[in-house]
Structure formats: C-alpha cells, structure tokens
Amino acid sequence: MAGPLPIGDPAPADGLLPAQAVDGAAERALGLYVHVPFCRVRCGYCDFNTYTATELRGATQADYAAQAIGELRFGAAALEASGLPPRELGTVFFGGGTPTLLPAAQLVEMLAAARREFGIRPGAEVTTEANPDSVDAAYLAELRDGGFTRVSFGMQSAVPSVLATLDRTHDPERVPLVVAWAREAGLDVSLDLIYSTPGERLADWRTSLEAAIVAAPDHLSAYSLIVEDGTKLARQVRRGELAAPDDDLAADMYELADELLAEAGFAWYEVSNWARGDEHRSRHNLGYWRGDDWWGVGPGAHSHVGGVRWWNAKHPAAYADRIAAGVSPAVGRETLDAAARETERVLLGIRIREGLEIASLPEPGRAAIAGLIAEELVEPRAALAGRLTLTRRGRLLADAVVRRLLA
After folding, report:
1. Is residue 256 located within the same domain as residue 351?
2. How far is residue 142's CA from residue 12's CA, in Å, rounded to a whole number?
3. How many distinct structural domains can be found in the chain?
4. Where is the Radical SAM core domain (predicted)?
C-alpha cells in the first residue's frame, strides 16, 4: 500500500470548492481519473495505493463500480453547486491497480455514468491501463464497443529476469499478442516500460526497447525505477540483496531509449513519453502537465480544480463508508497560492516538448537562459524564437533546469 496521504486542511463533507476554483474554469479542460485499486499480487517496486484480495478488510471488488458511480454523481453535483461552469470531459483515464481485473462490463458501466453526469466531448480520449495477462480479445472488443478508445499495457520489460526482480507475473511473449488484439478491436495502444531495475544491463534494456518497437504501439512510456520507501524492493536494497539503481547507467538507458525510439518514428513530447505523431500523445496526461482540471474518483485518488487539490480516503473500506453516507470521500485538501502555482507551472511545463514561453518567466529565470544554452540544456533555436525547450541532455537534468529557472 502507498505511503501516507499529504498533510493538508480538512476537506468539507459537502465537497464545495472555494471561489478560486471557479476563476478561469471555462478556459480550462476537464478530465476524469478513475482509480481502480485492485491487484492480484503486489509488485515489489510498487508504491501505488493498491490492494490484493487479502488486504480489502470488508471492501469487495464486486461493489466497487457502484461506489465509483456514487462519487461521479456527487462530484458533478459538487462542481455545479460550487459555481463551476458545465464542462464535458475531454479525457477519461482508468488507472490502478489493475482496472482490467474488473469485468469489462463494469468499466463500461462507470464510463456510461461519467457520460450521464458530466458529459463526454465527441472524440474524447478514453483510456484504461491493463496488465498483459488480464485481458483477451473479447474483453478488449467489449471495451471498444463501450466507448473506450485507448489501452495502456504494463509491459515493463521483455527480459524474464528483470520481470522477476520486479515481481511481474506476465509472460513477455504475450505482449505482442495483446497489442494485436487491441489493434483488431480498434484501440490505440500504449506500452509502459521501466528501466534501471537492479541487475538490468544495458543490453537487457535494448532487448526490451526492441521488443516494444516490434510490437508497434502508438505510444510508449519509459520510466526510471525509483526505489520507494516501504516497498519490498526498498527492503531488498537495504539488506544488500539487490544493488541500488545506478544513476549513470540510468542516463545511458534513457539516451538509448531516445535514440532507438526516434529511429523507429517516435517523437518525445514529455520527458518520459514518446508517440508516433501528435495524435497519439496521451491527452489525459498532457492535461496534468498543463495544469488543467481533473476529478479523481476512487480510494486515494487526487483531484485538482483551479489550484485547489484534494485527496480521498485511502482504504477501499473507508472510501466505501463515506460514499454510503453521502458525504465527500475527500479527507484533505490544499489551496495553492500564486507562488506555488507558478512553481508548479514551471516544474511541469518545462517537461513537455512545447516548453515554456520565455516571456512568461520571471526575470531571474530569463537571466539563466544564456547559461542553460551554453551548457546544452535547452534548445538554442527555440530560445531565439521565444520558447524554452529541453535538449536530450536537458531532459536528463530537468530538475536542475527548474532550480535555475526558479532561483
């Protein structure tokens, strides 16, 4: 299970938002995230808010769809009562956990409820995450018939020893099969990879990248493994059973990914994400990086509207109790001030390919640009045209770039 929730102010039981959330809302996109917190087994590296069957303590998977639908009704009413203008959803994302542990009919039922309560824009992107061993061709076809447009498979690696270290249970040879099934169903396909797993060699990572490219997804994410406190992996590293990830090797792996993916026709659009053309970028995730609004449904889910953030009760049983009582499932929230929102805008905006408008930066940030160009951290031509975008080296050192811009 994930670590503790953030420290914030108590969230009101009626879910009403302050006036700050209303300002400018008509110009911001609205997305929906649905957290499905169930997994068959717990992966050793995972710090997400997920639960196996033995950890549910009174909550059940069978009841979850009805509870999520209850929050959808509550959320739509709370936004309206807070004075937010009506906005149809531009993106919907089911994450977890493993959403596809639920029957496809239940995912479709929750999506239909989102359509009833919020409305969904024509051409909206509707994604679910899935493990390769949790779906078959019929399941994927049912999702597509129910309104889903995209599936994101947790491939992680094509090397059995790496998957074993991560406690992943799927057969890597199943990945091209599920990608083909998704294609036949008419779904866009993304693959998620993890690199810098303890014991993983550069040659292993090349094998995984090449296997992912051969599978021919539309989109690919590659994340450097972070050893999170409280996980099985952290205990193994602390006891010396596994070596800690090597930062220099991780940088080599990132550069190899960017090279191979570019050769295969993928373009980076966010530090850890590549797509075959802009139409295949994750619009939902772009909403996070651009500071749009989203409502997060489910245990431990986080929401954001106009600089107001809140988070739900973590455990499925506690979440279910609040939904049954007809009160907000949120247990805490924070309202960002102007300085915090500006920091977040720079922190997230510099990560995407479009970068930041130089004119939007404060004077200390603008003064740092010459040095960033000299150190080959930002693209000089883009800077001359008025935008700050990262080079490959800059992507590896994105946090350092942000510190310079905000100094």
Report:
1. no
2. 38
3. 2
4. 24-267
Please state the length of the chain. 407
User: Helix 64-81 to helix 316-325 angle, to the nearest 10 degrees?
Assistant: 50
pLDDT at 58: 85
- Average pLDDT of span 378-405: 97
Q: Which residue has the tokens 């196996």?
A: 52
Question: Around Cβ 299, how many Cβ atoms within 10 Å?
Answer: 27
User: What residues make up the domain containing 406?
Assistant: 337-407
- Measured CA to CA, the distance from residue 43 to residue 163 in angstroms comes to 10
Q: Residue 1 has what pLDDT?
A: 47
d(CA 351, CA 361) in angstroms, rounded, equals: 15
Long-range contacts of 137-141 (CB under 8 A, 24+ apart): 137/181, 137/184, 137/185, 139/100, 139/104, 140/178, 140/181, 140/182, 140/184, 140/185, 140/187, 141/184, 141/185
Same domain, 133 and 224: yes
Query: Residue 380: which CATH number?
Result: 1.10.10
pLDDT digits (tens, 9 = 90+) for 233-263: 999 999 999 999 999 999 999 999 999 999 9
Tokens of 174: 């199943």
Q: Rounded to the nearest 5°, which phi and psi values hold at 287?
A: -60, -40
Other Cβ atoms closer than 10 A to 45: 22
Please spell the DSSP secondary structure of 8-35, one letter per residue: -BPPPTT----GGGTTTGGGS-EEEEEE
Q: What is the pLDDT of residues 315-324, one digit of tens each?
A: 999 999 999 9
